[in-house]
Amino acid sequence: MDIIQVTNLKKYYGKHLGIENVSFSVKEGEILGFVGPNGAGKSTTIRILLNFIFPNGGNATICGQDVVKESHEIKKFTGYVPSDVRFYGDMTVKELIRVSNEFYSGSHDKEAERLCNLFELNSSKKFYELSMGNKKKAAIICALAAKPRVLILDEPTNGLDPMMQKRLFTELKNQSANGVSILLSSHNLGEVQEYCHRVAFIKQGKILAITDLKEMRHPQKIITTIGGKDIIHPSMQLLEQGEVKRTFRYKGDSALLLKLLQEASPDDFTVNNESLEERFLNLYGMEEQQ
Amino acid sequence: MNVFRLEIKNTWKSTLKWTIVVCSITFMLLAFFPSMQTESMKELAGAKMEGIDPALLEALGLSKLMDFTVITNFFGYVLQYITLAIMMFVTQVAVTSLVKEETDGTIEFLYSKPISRNAIFIQKVLANTLSFLFLLAALSIITVVGYLSFSEYNFTESIQEVGILYSSIFYVGLIFMSLGVLLSSLLKSSKGSSGIVIAIVFGTFILGIMGVIINELSFLSYFSPMDWIKTQKLMTEGICREEWLIGVLTITICSFASYEIYKKRDLHL
């Protein structure tokens, strides 16, 4: 079941393109990575989902409710962590969490306390006194305390130390296992590859590809050969051609690969699994060449 | 009423500072009143004012040679400058009410919570109105205390006069507040809002002066709400029908327009 459904979303800032025909979905219990360079349109998409800004076309729903018309209802079950956390500086973390929780029905004090302990956050400090990482922790606690069904996270690990990043993702994994749907915007491809189910690549306001990361568990291979003959085969995609060095992407079984390499008989070669980072760079490189 | 409480919490320090300053100035000015009643001061003031150009007297709000030995005249004169300060406060609070959180970035916290823009708008405006009422209530108390301490007015007379003066200031304050809220819904940033506040408050004040000095421009007084409530006029003529109409229309149109604009605007983060 699609919890977040985005269809042909468009946003222009005057004449400047924000996003165009952005479509993707997030299923129940899924973590969707949202990846792209700075200014690609990630934050614009997120801001439309939260009704901070209005789209010029297309539509988006969360749990079947329109993000423009029923934003108020959507936010009852949606948590949000902004990339740049700027909360009320004069308040202590405790006050902020209390104020945040007051917007939701029911008591969430115990959950907030559990999260404060998990992220080792001193809640008696004023917000302006906190480091960047601790501000991020406060935002994460405010977003998670009310036990939302949907989480929209804009670069949530920015400023967090590696141990806290690990704790956050363990928590997100647990939440996802309990049916929480998560849209995770991030620059950190390693964390996206490790924790997300699928990833949507966006560039210059357009979705380039949506990849199932299960495929990455059986990754394509990047083959580099030095010297030897050309390899021409449907399963070999030439990525880069130097004087003697050639780089290919290979999708197929090992036996065929060995046979192809034997036929080409290069002076030297390397075989590596393709990482998400390479996929990202190839995708964006290809786009740039076009 | 979470946003209401949040807004009060965020603005109470500034409200308190303004209240303390304006109340202190008001009380100190009232404390001058007994010295105005002495014969020598009366003669001095009369002689000085007779030598001043009538146009300048008009501009200073001294359209007739006022008898400053009467507390209503004396306080009415100084009140026009206190009113300027009050309008500065009200307009400043209103201009920053919606847009400041966008400039500071704190609006992301609020907007990610389950509360509609309508509710945010209404609760913020209510919080601003309460801050304004708090300032007026404190000023009313201080003024009554001043009247009782420095004039021969009894409690009932003081309450009656102060009630008329400050309720008219409340009315004019609502006009400036609605203009401020409208601007707040249109601005992209609260930076430079002080200049806008000064332009609105002093601009309308100066329009009023021009309307008084230049006969051909007397219609400008309609664009100067502070002119509508000058004490001498207020005590004799009250607020006229046209002034009520312009004021109520301004409040209604500005409030409705800012409400609609705020509902449909993109956040600037």
What does this structure look like?
The complex is a heterodimer of chains A (290) and B (269). Chain A is built from ten helices and 14 strands. By secondary structure, chain A is α/β, with parallel strands linked by helices. Chain A folds into two domains: 2-216, 3-Layer(aba) Sandwich (Rossmann fold); 220-274, 2-Layer Sandwich (Alpha-Beta Plaits). With 269 residues, chain B is mainly α. Chain B has one domain. In chain B, α1 packs antiparallel against α5 (71-104), α5 (71-104) runs parallel beside α8 and α7 (117-150) packs antiparallel against α8. Chains A and B meet through α2, β6 and α3 of A and α1 and α6 of B.
> Which structural class is indicated by helix and strand composition of chain A?
alpha/beta
Rg of chain B, alpha carbons: 20 Å
The average pLDDT value of chain A, as a whole number, equals 89
According to CATH, the fold-level topology of the largest domain in chain A is: Rossmann fold
State the name of the first-level CATH class of the largest domain in chain A.
Alpha Beta
Q: Could you name the CATH homologous superfamily of the largest domain in chain A? A: P-loop containing nucleotide triphosphate hydrolases
Question: How are the strands ordered across the major sheet of chain A?
Answer: 6-7-8-3-9-10
Tell me what portion of residues of chain B adopts beta-strand conformation: under 5%
Largest sheet of chain A: 6 strands, mixed
What's the arrangement of secondary structure elements?
The complex is a heterodimer of chains A (290) and B (269).
Chain A: E1 2-13, E2 16-27, E3 31-35, H1 42-49, E4 57-62, E5 65-66, H2 71-74, E6 78-81, H3 93-102, H4 109-118, H5 132-144, E7 150-154, H6 162-177, E8 181-186, H7 189-195, E9 198-203, E10 206-212, H8 213-217, E11 221-226, E12 236-241, E13 245-250, H9 254-264, E14 268-273, H10 276-289
Parallel strand pairs in A: 3-8, 3-9, 6-7, 7-8
Antiparallel strand pairs in A: 1-2, 1-4, 4-5, 9-10, 11-13, 11-14, 12-13
Helix pairs in contact in A: 3-5, 4-5
Chain B: H1 2-31, H2 33-36, H3 39-50, H4 54-59, H5 71-104, H6 107-111, H7 117-150, H8 155-186, H9 193-213, H10 225-228, H11 231-236, H12 241-264
Helix pairs in contact in B: 1-5, 1-7, 5-7, 5-8, 5-9, 7-8, 8-12
